[in-house]
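Protocol step 6 of 9: fold each sequence in the batch and record its structure tokens directly after the sequence line. For illustration, a two-sequence batch is reproduced in full.

Sequence one:
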Amino acid sequence: MKTLKIITASFLLACAMLSFVPVGEWIMITTNNCKIYFPKKPTDRSGTVNTAKGNLKVNIYSYQAAANVSDDNLAYILTETEYPDSVINSDDEDKLDIFFKNSIDGIVNNFHGTLLSQSKTAIDGFPGRQVKLDLQQGKAVMNIRFYLVKNRMYILEIITNTNKDGNAAIEKFMNSFEIKN
């Protein structure tokens, strides 16, 4: 019995460690539904949020670069939200524009930013939007990608100083995102 407990504990520890797999300096984060690379291990804040649309399961992974760390960006964030199918699904093409507009407006308002640009994008055939916000009256920029995969919204965000916008780490983070089918 004691051996079984040790084996079980070892297995659980190995599974936990595998969810953060380092690649070079970057660390792969995996969920049941996606994977993405962060420059360092992010903080995991997951839970359920009670909203007018019902209880939503939300996973937030974030890494904020310390002032003394040589990183071109200030913060990296992945938010994964699961909506009830009755609220939104990527197959509901007639609802997509309004859903993305409301999502973009929400981030603009939450960050007190100014929308600089937006365009349509996609991942594996699922719809998305790419957005850029001005923050702090020109001092910082937020690059955002929204993807709606069935009833899951993924939001990838990077905040950087305006003079560092367009750096290679932005594309590395954004392009490392993959969904699991």
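Sequence two, same batch, same settings:
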Amino acid sequence: MSGQPRIYPNLNPSAAVPVDRGQVFRLSSFAGNYRARRGKEHGQYVPNARFVFVKMMTGETLMHPRFRHPALAEGRPVVYAGEASFNNGKLDWWSNGSGNYRPDPDHAVQAGLPMEQFFTYEQILKGVHRERR
């Protein structure tokens, strides 16, 4: 990968349903730990579940455990999209699992997440991410 980042359009405009933006988490990391803020709340959450995420053109990573990718991105193009699993603030694994954006593994670095914890969607389906523990 070189030059300009690859931008992924929403392939399913009807999936960009309005959601309560106050329920959308913004991911941040510090020293290998992850935290999330939601809406206008001042507190931080320690992610401890599987989330759908999008890396926006603004650089922020938005996520939610149930909202679909186009709902998180409000139908806009993204730099990357996928799923991420956290265990008490630690990233277990992440993937390019998004049927609405279909990001390719060759551009996974654009997500800004640790590449050593990246698995393709196909590897997740086969359980490869569980074998490395």
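Proceed to step 7 once all outputs are recorded. Observation for sequence two: The chain has one domain: 21-122.
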